[in-house]
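Colleagues,

For the teaching module next term, I've prepared a clean inverse folding example: a structure given as tokens, and then the sequence designed for it. I'd like students to try predicting residues themselves before seeing the answer, so please don't circulate the second half yet.
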């Protein structure tokens, strides 16, 4: 699956503040996603690589490192990238601008796929130890060198933790229900599964591959946290205990 499909969806979602429109764009995206990739697409839409409870390392690439990678990929100086960042206030947009006017044409650039982007970001997140900083920069620069300006904007936002599409978990569940069961009325089934597993990607993969019946099979598992309910205010200790 081309990463451009994801970038185009992000662009449309970012351009609206209306929840129903966001959901419609997500429905289109999920329908266009192969079932075996749906969990990764859901995580990337949230600006992450894994469910939070796994405690795996986040990307957390600092702006300075991201700028080095943009410089390598674009052939532009760090000072030019810093200037664009200062002017635009958004490193993703700065990357989009400088990569739109590459100093050298990348004749051998390969179209980015979701699989490649996810695998590279996963490697960046897990790279540690001596020389890890330079390795992270090289990996990121390799992605950006093959990325379109729009793709670069969202890759940079993901790695720096600034994707912020404003897509809530419940909007994702609505979109999954609409895309794979034909009705948002079935969201409560998906929400129950999500509450039991705390893993939106796992719910997405289950409904994409097996429909509602697969989602209904979710059970509490040892070592996998359930989502906490919101607390309700009560006036007395007796009522709380009751």
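(Answer key — instructors only)
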């Amino acid at each position: 699956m081309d990463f451009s499909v994801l970038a185009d969806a992000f662009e449309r979602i970012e351009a609206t503040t209306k929840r129903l429109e966001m959901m419609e764009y997500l429905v289109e995206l999920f329908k266009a996603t192969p079932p075996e990739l749906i969990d990764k697409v859901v995580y990337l839409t949230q600006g992450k690589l894994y469910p939070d409870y796994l405690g795996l390392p986040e990307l957390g690439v600092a702006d300075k490192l991201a700028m080095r990678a943009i410089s390598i990929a674009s052939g532009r100086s760090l000072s030019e990238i810093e200037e664009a960042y200062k002017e635009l206030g958004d490193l993703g947009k700065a990357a989009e601008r400088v990569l739109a006017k590459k100093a050298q044409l990348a004749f051998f650039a390969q179209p980015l796929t979701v699989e490649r982007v996810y695998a590279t970001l996963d490697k960046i997140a897990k790279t540690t130890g001596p020389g890890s900083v330079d390795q992270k920069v090289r990996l990121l620069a390799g992605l950006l060198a093959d990325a379109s300006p729009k793709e670069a904007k969202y890759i940079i936002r993901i790695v720096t933790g600034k994707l912020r599409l404003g897509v809530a978990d419940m909007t994702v569940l609505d979109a999954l229900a609409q895309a794979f069961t034909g009705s948002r009325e079935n969201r409560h089934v998906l929400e129950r599964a999500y509450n039991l597993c705390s893993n939106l990607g796992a719910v997405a993969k289950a409904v994409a591959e097996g429909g509602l019946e697969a989602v209904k099979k979710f059970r509490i598992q040892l070592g996998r946290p359930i989502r906490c309910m919101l607390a309700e205010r009560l006036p007395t200790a007796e009522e709380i205990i009751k």
